[in-house]
Amino acid sequence: MNVTATNAKTAGRVSRFPEHGPIAENGKEILLSIKDIDITFGKGDSAVRAVTDASFDIYKGETFSLVGESGSGKTTIGRAVIRVNPLAAGEIQYKGVRISGKIAHALDREVIRNVQMVFQDPAASLNERATVDYIISEGLYNFHLFENEADRVRKVENMIHEVGLLPEHLTRYPHEFSGGQRQRIGLARAMVMEPELVVADEPISALDVSIRAQVLNLLKKFQREQQVTYLFIAHDLSIVRFISDRIGVIYKGRIVEVADAEELFDYPLHPYTHSLISAIPIPDPKLEKNKVQYIYDPSMHDYSVDKPEFVCIGHDHYVYGNKKEIEEYKAIRERGVPLKPIQIAEGGAHVQEGHADATEAAAEAQFLSAPVHDTGSAWYAVLSFFLPVLGIIAALLFKKHRHIRNYKACKKGAVIGFITIGVILLIFALLLILAVI
Question: Would you say the C-alpha torsion 232, 236, 237, 243 has a positive or negative sign?
Fold first, then answer.
């Protein structure tokens, strides 16, 4: 009997999960395992395969991010984990026990209890007719996770405080809150259950930039205090890089690359991963204007004879490709020279794929190492206008210490100041000559 069949029979008998999941070869505990899953919507000729042969593991206590463009199947996998989307093939295991397909009622309740989801739209995911108190308490009521009413109130008030809201907010309704506050309510609803795994489906994409950092800090805070594991679904790689332990890249329902966060950014081997990283915006208009974006073309792969596989090339780095591509990926990785998917064109001319030349690298390094206080404030220009001599001295000092924006502001103000003084002196001289005549 194969392992899949054994797990299927086991899932029908067990009512509780084991205390610990299986141990991977690297010594880490596997909390969630996605094994060769297919997810299809519709039947017959109208059937649409949203996910194809997807496989990855999530280790206990880590943040595993699933990234890809809109419609790539990220949310579909997340909903399959919480047993909303059924599988057409493959299986999902939690602590080594199959949770996909038909399972015992008691085990289904354990999945609901231990696996929670934070949804992308904080407005649509909350019941507008329920108070915040009931929304957060609903899971506590369903699983009776409190001793008495006083204990329930204490848990809800503690959780509302943890997410940065106030006890008086509990009597209000979701429409009375901003988007960021509603997302905090959704997070409180999930975390009050004390889950082991949280599926965070783009929890910050609908929020203002200033609020995003607060929500991310809350997620990391709960991870530190409660050892929560996250499946973080997103499309913004610039954020994913700094909160993830490992990253999986998905393209049209297929996982094409999985690696540690820094490993993936240093060695984006699959062309689609390369294109995603090259699309990350640079916070400098001149560099962004001359940035060369790599466009992924699926027709570059020839899988007619040599069929592709999802294999490990070492360094816990998995890539999807045929034998020829895998050998190329291994050779690039073994050279140990980090790739540079973000390319800056010199004077607007396109740069070939590969590593940036010395000029581009120097420009990028200069930008990244620019002083924090090099703001080019208008006050430098104003002061230099009234005190042009001191302005020129300040400009030279700023230039020496690479405060380029401050240097330009002082120089501009001083030059205008000197011109103004020159014009005033010229007018005064002309008036003096006219007076003598």
Answer: negative
